[in-house]
Write a structure and sequence with these properties.
single chain; 293 residues; 10 helices; Methyltransferase domain; methyltransferase; methyltransferase activity; SAM-dependent_MTases_sf
Length: 293
């Protein structure tokens, strides 16, 4: 069963226009529509599965962030790149926290590898993961319990809250941002990484762009969208940072969806081209460092 998004979560406009039709290449093979707000331009997946059925669209070994599978060359590459990006993410939060150990909440922690990296580096770290299977793997990886929801966290605030490719998955976008904001210390920072639908590779691949990832990705952000959403919640974007590795992986998967073939050379060139054209603030995915106003 499907539900329509009738109100834009950013500007509260009630009028949408057709944007794209995309296929779920990972799990179901179904097609889904993307609609664009006629006022602010925010793109949403609509109609989309009811929230109680969304979990069915994550049940695949191909969905590596939840299954932790290393089967196949692409998934092996994913794990290899992740080792590098985990170190970069740790350096980022250390820099943001003035190179002092602090407290971090990883919301949507998946199988717990970033959480484990933080714990090993001496941070006080907690994780939230709604998916039961991923939560069990994360708990085993970190040797600690993982929260199933933000509501389970009581009387605690954090120096850093991270959402690594999570915000685009969250059905209750505004309610979740309000809850996350309440869990930040007054000087705390929210770090949000999301795909960038204005990136060069998004324009090249169109409906085949792997980062649309319907129906798991419910929202499709541009920099303007993130700016408007932060303003709505009295948050301020302090810095926007690139995620250059994403362009290569997304290009590889997009070409696979487009042609049915794995083309490493073409994907590497497309990823390089996307990063070259992007500069530092328009890569395939972007990291937003956000503070309280």
């Amino acid at each position: 069963m499907l539900e329509n998004i009738e109100v834009c979560p950013i500007c509260e406009n009630t009028s949408f226009e057709a944007f794209l039709t995309c296929k779920d290449y990972t799990v179901s093979g179904e097609t889904f529509s993307l609609q664009k707000c006629s006022n602010c331009g925010f793109v949403v997946t609509s109609p989309r599965p009811l929230q109680k059925f969304l979990g069915n669209y994550y049940k695949s070994e191909s969905y590596v962030s939840h299954s932790d599978t290393q089967k196949g060359l692409i998934n092996k590459m994913y794990h290899w790149v992740r080792k590098i990006t985990l170190k970069r993410k740790l350096r980022l939060i250390e820099k943001i926290n003035h190179f002092q150990k602090g407290s971090v909440l990883d919301f949507g922690c998946g199988t717990g590898y970033f959480l484990k990296t933080c714990l090993q580096a001496g941070w006080q770290a907690e994780g939230v993961e709604p998916d039961e299977n991923a939560r069990k793997i994360a708990s085993n990886n970190t040797n600690k319990p993982i929260f199933a929801s933000l509501q389970e966290i009581k009387n605690t605030q954090f120096d850093i809250i991270t959402l690594w490719h999570v915000l685009e998955h969250i059905p209750d976008l505004n309610e979740t941002l309000s809850a996350l904001k309440s869990l930040l210390k007054p000087t705390g920072k929210l770090i949000v990484a999301v795909p960038n639908r204005d990136s060069y590779d998004a324009q090249v691949f169109g409906a085949f762009w792997a980062a649309y990832d319907v129906p798991r990705h419910l929202w499709h952000f541009s920099k303007n969208d993130m700016q408007a959403l932060c303003q709505k919640h009295h948050l301020q974007i302090q810095e926007i940072l690139p995620m250059p590795f994403d362009a290569y992986y997304i290009s590889l998967m997009s070409i696979l969806y487009q042609t049915g073939k794995t083309q490493f050379v073409r994907a590497f060139w497309q990823g390089f081209l996307s990063n070259w054209k992007a500069g530092k603030q328009n890569t395939s995915s972007l990291i937003y460092v956000i503070k309280l106003q």
